[in-house]
Design a protein that fits this description.
Structural class: alpha/beta
Distance between the termini: 34 Å
Radius of gyration: 20 Å
Strand content: 5-15%
CATH architecture: Alpha-Beta Barrel
Number of domains: 1
CATH topology: TIM Barrel
Strand order of the largest sheet: 3-4-5-6-7-8-9-10
Shape: globular
Largest sheet: 8 strands, parallel, barrel
Length: 349
């Protein structure tokens, strides 16, 4: 298993982590992901550890905390062999203070996650979203205190815009506080918005990308094709889950799948394996969160490592998934010799 540094830290993580949104399935939204029990989750953890995947990602809102509880039970007795990543910020009750990134809430959220996970520390704790109602200084001072208390080892964020992340990093530097070393962000062959601002920022500021939904919210499984209904166990069949995920136009999706089919014939690999391998070659990526409803899906996803797409195959996928650049990035493209972009400068030279 390949390991990479998590951003600018000295901490190495496997290139894959197992996402645990499929654990529990106790709410309407998360039923669309899966409903693994403790027994099934334990088997998933076993398979991951055998393959060198020692990192597991969760969040306090996944199945209303059941995901963390099941993960805690599945890793019991082998805490020293795993890396735990979890998240907080979104509302966990109707109380006006059970949401956000205030000192009041973050301390309670971390303590609750520790109880559910049956551990006394979290390796990577991430804010699930940006809270514009709480001063950034308050949030970062609280996280820093939790790091100093040994309850968190490293901090990260998720779903931040470029200015959210950069302002937070600047305040950490100004006050001498712990910095975000990871940004858990959506990135896939059918979701490349991350590349315009967040990727160059990540390289410049040494923030590692922890990629969520690398298969485009379940659209890059190879089972969604022109003129065919989604497979019976797809999250696309659950309207609530489908509507709240990243939206992709049908023709764009089919164009990308067509290119994946071409590469699949050349490599003998599956469409999900190719989509994951493409991401492993993108700049700034430290870790990719893979999800699986069952052992078969998990083992297939693990087949995305140990080989590499050729430069020509990457170019085929890049071309099929290319989108017109938003402003000001299309304008900056004319000035690449002085303002190079990590994914465009080489192609333009």
């Amino acid at each position: 298993m390949e390991h990479r540094y998590l951003g600018g830290s000295g901490f190495k993580v496997p290139v894959f982590s197992l996402g645990t949104a499929t654990f529990g399935g106790t709410t309407d939204f998360f039923k669309g992901f899966g409903s693994s029990s403790v027994k099934e989750a334990t088997r998933m953890v076993d398979i991951c550890l055998d393959a060198g995947v020692s990192m597991f990602d969760s969040a306090d809102i996944y199945s209303a905390g059941a995901s963390e509880e099941i993960l805690g039970a599945a890793i019991e007795g082998r805490r020293d062999k795993v890396i735990i990543s979890t998240k907080g910020t979104f509302a966990t009750s109707e109380s006006p203070n059970d949401v956000g990134s205030s000192r009041h809430y973050l301390i309670r959220a971390v303590e609750a996650s520790l109880r559910r996970l049956k551990t006394d520390y979290i390796d990577l704790y991430q804010l699930h979203g940006f809270d514009a109602q709480t001063p950034i200084e308050e949030t970062l001072l609280t996280l820093n205190d939790l790091v100093r208390a040994g309850k968190i080892r490293y901090i990260g964020c998720s779903n931040f815009s470029g200015w959210h992340l950069m302002k937070s990093l600047a305040i950490s530097d100004k006050l001498g506080l712990s910095r975000y070393v990871a940004h858990q962000a959506y990135y896939s062959l059918v979701g490349r918005d991350y590349e315009w601002e967040l990727l160059p920022l990540a390289l410049d500021q040494k923030v590692g990308a922890v990629v969520w939904s690398p298969l485009g919210w379940g659209k890059l499984t190879g089972k969604i094709r022109r003129g065919q209904p989604p497979p019976p166990n797809s999250r696309m069949n659950t309207k609530l889950t489908a509507d709240l995920g990243p939206q992709v136009e049908d023709e764009y999706l089919f164009r990308v799948v067509d290119a994946l089919d071409v590469v699949a014939k050349e490599t003998g690999k599956t469409i999900p394996q190719i989509a994951l391998n493409w991401l492993l070659q993108r700049p700034s990526v430290s870790n990719i969160i893979i999800g699986a409803r069952n052992e078969e899906q998990l083992k297939q996803n693990l087949g995305a490592i140990g080989w590499q797409l050729s430069a020509a195959q990457v170019a085929t996928l890049d071309a099929a998934s290319a989108r017109p650049a938003p402003y000001p990035y299309w304008h900056q493209h004319f000035f690449l010799e002085r303002n190079p972009h990590p994914t465009l400068a080489k192609a333009a030279s």
